[in-house]
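Notebook, bench 3.
Goal today: get a predicted structure for Glucose-6-phosphate 1-dehydrogenase from Demequina zhanjiangensis so we can plan the truncation constructs. The sequence was checked against the plasmid map this morning, with no discrepancies at the termini. Length recorded as 504 residues. Pasting the sequence as submitted so the record is complete.
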Amino acid sequence: MNPLRDPRDRRLPRIAGSCGLVMFGVTGDLARKKLMPAVYDLANRGLLPPAFALTGFARREWGREDFAQVVYESVREHARTPWSDETWRQLSEGIRFVQGTFDDPEAFAELRRTVEDLDERRGTGGNHAFYLSIPPSAFPQVVTQLRDSGLSDPKDGTWRRVVIEKPFGHDLESAERLDEVVSSVFPPDSVFRIDHYLGKETVQNLLAIRFANQLFEPIWNSQYIDHVQITMAEDIGIGSRAGYFDGIGTARDVIQNHLLQLFALTAMEEPASFEAADLRAEKEKVLRLTELPEDLGLGTARGQYAAGWRGGEQVGGFLEEDGISEDSTTETYAAIRLDVPNRRWNGTPFYLRAGKRLGRRVTEIALVFKKAPSPYFQHIQGSDVGTNALVIRVQPDEGVTLRFGSKVPGSQMEVRDVTMDFAYGNAFTESSPEAYERLILDVLLGDPPLFPRQEEVALSWQILDPITTYWSSQGQPEQYRSGTWGPTSADEMMARDGRAWRRP
């Protein structure tokens, strides 16, 4: 019996059938810190079949034992679930490795022989997913090699799937070119675009909060909500990502995917069901309706972090980072206003912001309600009624906070903000799975509700492209001191609307 499976648990777990996972980019941080531990955790939870195989592909001159050792070290350091000798023994028996480069047809021929051998010896049944944990520039080459080697072709009753990590292009044109290549090899139902934010428990819980509770959905509209703020703040700089980040920037890196997905899930109408097609249809409606500010200079803001303090340590600015040109115009902070002119949201703006080297690490969705209409409390000294907020914390402390006004104990009528707080860690005894656990399992099951299709990707770029094009003509971004909450232009953008950013 699996030690992590409670026999009293009546929930029916979704267990993947016989299959294999081929992982490209196994030497990278994502594979080592997230993907390999997620595979082990799934196996440890009893959600992978005994007939499962993990194959690594890289240019390193490794053998099977070398790669198995890499997986072992990764799992021991980063796995979420406890160590199990039995789980590791079963998993390690299905580990394989193929050495080669992306431009080497013989390496892909060897990969095909390896996959076929696993079908025969391991019982993977001809079902294989190819996880491209590699730079986006290499996607077309690898996908083409999978086609030319026959690896992308399923036999009768089997499946082949490809998993692509964001970013999906760097603008609409490049995203469409990438899709042409991928869709020429894999059918749409076999293409899984990974946005790991959509695997987070709190993001999935957003649907339950909205549609499983009569408490919230009736007031989830412009009649009661003044505006919505979606924030993704990081307290770190770019680290060693200069080669990737410079020229990409925060808007393309996280707003186009993570934040616009959160925006669509927050603003969409209730889907006919929670099947993939119905969920996507409602998200696409929102993205298609979304309007940008008429004046992008007033309705957007961008900045670069300058020297300052982080955690009591003095840090340098973006332009001082290794690999960054001193005249780089890449933004490390981006804020935009979006409007959805439909019956639910007309007149209620959405503000999206993301940045590096800000005050603290936090991702949240905050629905800020309109002021209470009572004239009595508006004139009571010390009262701050009308700033109610429902805050959905995506990370790091997953949960939900409801802020409202309450009377301060004493003889006078004084009202002060208080909060009611729900935290996953306190409310549930079991820990939340990592996002990649959920997403990898969904790939192996062929369950696509949380994966954006090309139409969503294209609509997101249609929203962002005019903004980045405008910024490219505006010269150097405004500097903001590390450890603060962004450039003054972002505060001014809100102030012009009579609002202010929340302090998470």
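The radius of gyration is 24 Å. Residues 1-12 have pLDDT under 50 and may be disordered.
Flagging this for group meeting.
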